[in-house]
Fold each of these.
Amino acid sequence: MSAVMITRKVRKWEKLPGKNTFCCDGRVMMARQKGVFYLTLFLIVGTCALFFAFECPYLAVHLSPTIPVFAALLFLFVMAMLLRTSFSDPGVLPRALPEEATFIEMEIEAANGNVPAGQRPPPRIRNVQINNQIVKLKYCYTCKIFRPPRASHCSICDNCVDRFDHHCPWVGNCVGKRNYRYFYLFTLSLSLLTIYIFTFDIVHVVMRKYQLSNQREQTGFTVLEVLVCFFTLWSVVGLTGFHTYLISLNQTTNEDIKGSWSGKNRVQNPYSHKNILKNCCEVLCGPTYPSVLDRRGVMQEDSPVSAASAAPSSSSSTNPVPQTTVRTHTHINLNIKSRAITEGVGEK
Ligand SMILES: [Zn+2]
Ligand SMILES: [Zn+2]
């Protein structure tokens, strides 16, 4: 049975390696595990809904009508920052093409020489100089590239991410070069929103108590909100404080955990301006970087189909085989190889 090649156009995101999920035709990019992200959405939306339903009407009448307006603006900002962090490319680095990978590995082998059998080959590292500091670039065995400085491979998303900070299950995405500032603004605004709701919940309880109102059942929801806000406060405000400290040093969570610039090996942080204000400006107001993935770019893909299924039959003569049904689930690199094999066989 001979094979027939059908060429179809596919978006590049459909063929990207790694463990990300895409929707809206590649516009939205997230990690595969999204359970905790839905919990984040539920907690934020649920707490705010209770606040708007049970506290705001009372506080707007008895205290100030600006209280619900400010809460609504803060809530919208929190949601915008959360979705911006969760749905964007954090700075994923493309993997090497098979030919590039072969070339890099040949270069490494040539540099290392022949390693006697039974001996461990030397680590695959390249040194670069940044601001008079020697920084090691490590080779990623999965992506087949020497990672740029500050990049790291996320085991959950299975991608190398530029200026990798950490993988955050709460936002359902990696936090890296392209979404760090939005992540920080999310934690900062969420801290403010939590403090705001917590404060006005307590004001509401106190005002009702002194008013000797008979609407006691409504304060039950207020107590629930106070409890949620109280536990959120510790974690979110603590996290914001930690990231403020990291930004003031121009350091990532990954570098802090690994102690990359702790002074051992006499390597100081080459990215720090030794000035808190300059570091904050660079991290929060520096240039934004375009995605290098080109997720919505179009590429041609040849898919082999058997001649029997491709030949028009009586039932398909009026309804030809739709190209979209010819889908291969193989990796693009394997696809190139299988294509070469199939074509080789066909030429004989
Ligand atoms: Zn990698
Ligand atoms: Zn990740």
Amino acid sequence: MFPRVAWVHRGLLRSCARLPVCMSSSGIGQKGILANQVAVVTGSTDGIGFAIARRLAQDGARVVISSRKQQNVDRAVAALQGEGLSVVGTVCHVGKAEDRERLVTMVLEHCGGLDFLVCNAGVNPLVGSTLGASEQVWDKILEVNVKAPALMLSQLLPHMEKRGKGVVILVSSIAAYIPSVELGPYNVSKTALLGLTRTLSLELAPKGIRVNCLVPGVIETDFSKVIYKNEAFWNIVKENYKLQRIGQPEDCAGLVSFLCSPDASYITGESISVAGFSPHL
Ligand SMILES: NC(=O)c1ccc[n+]([C@@H]2O[C@H](COP(=O)([O-])OP(=O)(O)OC[C@H]3O[C@@H](n4cnc5c(N)ncnc54)[C@H](OP(=O)(O)O)[C@@H]3O)[C@@H](O)[C@H]2O)c1
């Protein structure tokens, strides 16, 4: 009934199917590599964020789910609690200061602190060129994709600092390295996240907080439908992607769990691609 969850750390292959307590929805008695830790994942009611939230919870963390729409939060929380996972949820549009504040309050009230922050929420309101983008489009993309992760972290940081450790994961895109002409300002925002990763990792290293960046290739979600529903794209996949497929949200989730785990304790400031091989990198 429950999905089999396996992970390999320190050379051990372990199966969550053999650990019934990891399915507790109370958060008490959790087991797994991330047991008794608290994770916030933004934009986590669908796609990559949802897969990350599920994986962190399967690996033992208590996870705070959020996105802009209450009905999506309710659906995601019900689905994961139905799998016996320890999750709570709240509405949080990452570009809104009051929503971020509400998220912080919920984290403290329901979880008493925080260990992991995954800044996954991102938008692309424009398919078009950089110079064709209006000021409004620029503001929205930079606000949600670049400013919001930094502001969210600054609001949550004091609570991570209290624990003397923490992990932050930003979510960039392969578009940061291989810009697409149709995604002008989005490319730029995702490149900025590579810089934000380096800067934050430097600033936060003395506090014991690691900052890394997930760089997804094309992953099958609602967000990327315009790309993978296009036949020309599949010709590129056949020619260049040796794995002959596009990615699934779950392909990204394992890396995030690893980066949060103690096995990644000496990894910070890195941007890691999950892109099924790109001939351009
Ligand atoms: N899919 C890809 O091929 C791909 C490739 C590279 C990078 N990425 C990056 O991966 C991240 C996730 O993309 P995805 O493909 O998983 O997208 P998705 O399937 O469309 O899911 C997006 C999630 O974010 C929420 N969301 C959207 N805007 C938000 C906001 N302003 N504040 C809070 N939550 C918000 C959505 O729920 P609500 O509608 O309820 O808010 C939903 O839960 C993005 O940062 C994207 O740039 C994706």
